[in-house]
Every structure is written in C-alpha cells, then in structure tokens.
Amino acid sequence: MDIAGINQINQWVGAGVIALGSILWAEIVRDLRHWLAHVWPWLMPKHTLHHRLFRRDLSVVDEQLYRESQWHHDVPEAVTMMVAGIPWVILLGWGSWLNGVAATAGIVYSASFWISGMLRGWGLALETDITHQPGPFPVPPSQWHVNRTYHWRHHFDDTNAYFCGTLTFVDRIMGTSLSLKGKRVAVTGASGTLGRALLKHLHRQGAKVIALSSQADPIQIEVNGQPQAVETLQWQVGQEGSLAELLERVDILVLNHGVNVHGARDAAAIQQSYAVNTFSSWRLMELFFQTVRSNPEVATKEVWVNTSEAEVSPAFSPLYELSKRALGDLVTLRRLDAPCVVRKLILGPFKSNLNPIGVMSGDWVAAQILAQAKRDCRNIIVTINPFTYLFLPLKELAVGTYFRLFSHSLPHPEAPASNSDSSGVPQGDSTSVPQGDGILG
Ligand SMILES: [Zn+2]
Ligand SMILES: [Zn+2]
C-alpha cells in the first residue's frame, strides 16, 4: 500500500476515535450536570421532580408529573449535552472537515435523548428509559455501565452517590460508586489489627458496624480520639449457621477471619487451615447469598472476602497459601452467579501483633480498602508488591474464564427463596477447629 493509502486509513481511524470521544464527552457532561443538580440550588428543584417521580419499585407516581419532569429534567439535560459538543466541532473542524463531522457524533447522540424526552413530554412515548423500568433485578449493579440495579441506588440508597447515567467511570473517579452511609456492615476477625481498623474507617464513612469475633469482650474502636465499644457478636468457626439471622439485617459482610499455622505441616494444621481459611468463609458467603432476595437486597448487599496476596505471591507459609488460594478460587467460581456484588481483598503483609515487621499499617490498609471499594474495584489490591497488581488481574481473568467455560451457570433466584430452612450449606464440625492466638485479623 502506498503512503497516500496509509494516510487515508489514519485519517478515518482518527475520525472514528473523535466520534467515539465526542459521545463519551456527552456522557461526562450528563453525569457532571447530574452531580451539579445535587449541589447547586438553581438546578436542584428541577432535578427533584425526577426524584419524586418514582416509587421504590420504579413504578411512576403520576402521569402528569412524569410529563412535566421530561420538560424540566430530561430535555434540558440533553440540550446541555448538545451545546457542550459544539466547541469540539469548531475546534476539530478548523483544520479538517472530516474531524469536524466526526465530532458531531456526540451532538447527534445527545439529540436522540432530546427527541425522546420531548416525545415523552408530549405524552407520545410513555415507555420509560432503560434505567427506570420496573420489575425484578436480574443481576447486581454492573461495574462498567449503568444498569437498573445501579441507578436504583441513586434514587433509594443514597442520592449523593451513583450519579452516572450510562457509563460508570465518572462515579468511579469521584469515589461515588458505592455509598457506605447508613450501611450495616459486619466484619469477621474483628479483634485483629485489620478488623479493628476496618471497623474504625467504616464507622467514619457513616456505616453502622457490627464486630464478629471469637472473643466475648466488646470490640472498641477509636472515635474522635476516644475508645468506643461497638456492637459485638461472639461466634466460633464451624458454627456459621448461628449467624444466619444476623446476616438477614446485614448490608455488607466482610469476611476477614483467618489462621496462619506458619511452618506446621501435620494433619491437624491442614485441617485447621482449610476449616478456618477456606470453608468457614465459603459457608458464610453462601449463607449471606441466601439473604439476597428482593430488589433492594440485590442492589445494596455485598460480600467482601479477604483472600490475601497469598493468592498469587508466596506468604512463606505453605498451608496459609494453599487454603487462601482455595478460598480465592472458590470466590472466583461462585461469583460468576452471585446474586450480589462480591469483592476480593488482596492484601500484602501489614504490621500487626503477629507480623511486627510489616511495612504497611493496618490503618492505612483499611483506608485504602474503602477508597477502592467506593471506586467499585471488585478486586481490591493493597500491597507494596508490584507483581500482585500485574498477576492478580491476569490470574482472575484466566481462572474466571476457565471456570465459566467448564462449569454450568446457575439460574438467578428471581423468585423469593422457596425454603429458607434447608440451606444446603453444610455445617462444619465446631469441635475440631481450634480457636485462639493464631487467628489473624
Ligand atoms: Zn439525581
Ligand atoms: Zn433516575
């Protein structure tokens, strides 16, 4: 091919990138305008119409209000998106007519929302847009695009979060992809270094925290420099079923208990490692899934599992690695069909009573975990080991794809759970699992 041909291809590729970029720009403008409508008093009353429009099941409150809100909310929003595209057309069209035409893609795209908004306003098209349609939520909130489950949370979980309308990245940059405000969060391994730090930071974010511990004493966290006791529930590994009732009223379950037998390799150490690190967390995760039935539960419930960096890096403790890797793989397998969001916490070694030479502090690790959760990271990596950031996503992709290809998908439990008493979750043998100093936070 001659040089002129290559140049022509380059021009068309460039125009394609500009066209896509202009559509992306329109979406960024939509989301920023929406965020502004929640902080700027001039825009607020018009946007409030949109919020008054829907009941919790997303049915429309009133036909007249519906049409009115199109004129006050949807139509001006589309006009803003169109106007914001004009400078790009002028700027890019200055040197190249092709680029100028490509930049109009975002305006044409925005115009489709303008037209459908007006049609609805005139009462000609009464079907609501896809993010506001009523009916059961088939899947949890999406990570990259806004589905109904995602947007429902903006209306009924926290109106100061989840601002995005089509793509989620503006929320992910602003840290508004997950609101912890008012969420009931239960943390296992609560007496450990990380458990306490998580409780403290969750409390600071406005969550109502519940400590789950093998010890009876109430766990204390530092609030404004003063120690404050938090709601603490005593439980033992192997007796996961005893927490079933509590899990019904928990929004986010953080599975953070674990044991490190270090250099041991006898039968008892193998039994203990798998019982605590693998099967106890797996059982609690399954029990928690059974509490996810209604639309609000699908939208807001989450499980976070501390599978640790041992999933991809040596922890210099073979049984710790084996049992944590087994848990990590089970989470990867199970979350293919999970009824709610499941996050993994992939943490490097941090300073604790059991590991005095750790570089990261538990406090810092906990803050990083919450910062990433609010940016909707499903694999939360906090470590100083650069290889983990490289290998974990690759491993997750490869293993997840393999599991997807060679196992069968489960039907999503859209109907309410039929029999709540037969859980199908095997209970462990509570007597054979020692508790004590070895339990890590
Ligand atoms: Zn809003
Ligand atoms: Zn809405």
TrEMBL record:
Alphabetized NCBIfam families for the sequence: PRK07424.1, PRK12367.1
User: Which parts of the sequence are annotated with region: Disordered?
Assistant: 414-441
Q: Which InterPro entries match?
A: NAD(P)-bd_dom_sf (IPR036291), SDR_fam (IPR002347)
Q: Does the keyword Oxidoreductase apply?
A: yes
Q: Which family does it belong to?
A: Belongs to the short-chain dehydrogenases/reductases (SDR) family.
Xref: SUPFAM superfamilies? NAD(P)-binding Rossmann-fold domains (SSF51735)
Q: Which organism is it from?
A: Thermostichus vulcanus str. 'Rupite'
Which spans does this entry mark as compositional bias, Polar residues? 417-434
Keyword Oxidoreductase included in the entry's annotation: yes
- Tell me, what's a Pfam family for it? adh_short
Tell me the protein's name.
Bifunctional sterol desaturase/short chain dehydrogenase
Which terms are listed as keywords in the entry?
Answer: Oxidoreductase
